[in-house]
Amino acid sequence: MNNRIIRFLTENNLTSTRFADIIGVQRSSVSHILSGRNKPSFDFIEKMLIAYPDLNAQWLITGIGSMKITNTVKNIEPDLFSSPIIESKKSTSPESIIQKQENNTPILNNSQEETIKKEKMDKTGLTIERIIIFYTDNTFNEYKPH
Fold first, then answer.
1. Residues contacting residue 139 through CB under 8 Å, at least 6 positions apart
2. Which of 69, 88, 140, 144 has an alpha carbon within 20 to 30 A of 24's alpha carbon?
3. Domains of the chain as residue ranges with CATH
4. pLDDT 10s per residue in the chain (146 long)?
5. pTM of structure
């Protein structure tokens, strides 16, 4: 991995001291890693990836892929959440949109069902099959348009 870090520094015109200052580690740590004396710790790799968000973690760790994250990878998330059905859910609070039965199955009123039917086609012409919302307490709700 030290060879990939050296290549990263070279391609970004960084000295080892400047790099250490940017990622917030001791300069001696970088020196030891670059010389091969020490292997980078998880903390070191994490700091590097946070400081350089375009750096491909898979390439850094395994050498597979390209050094930089490509545009197609970076653009997946915004496109995923830009479908009309998601946007319509953002505009109103979940409590006002969906009531739940005792078994957590959503109950939609007629206007909500119509909205879902009208908006279930996304911009690619594909039908939305289901939406799953995951919560921080490890629970989830699944919604299926009719």
1. none
2. 69
3. 2-74 (1.10.260.40), 81-143 (no CATH)
4. 889 999 999 999 999 999 999 999 999 999 999 999 999 999 999 999 999 999 999 999 999 989 998 754 444 444 444 444 443 334 344 444 455 545 555 555 666 665 655 555 555 667 777 888 888 888 888 887 76
5. 0.49
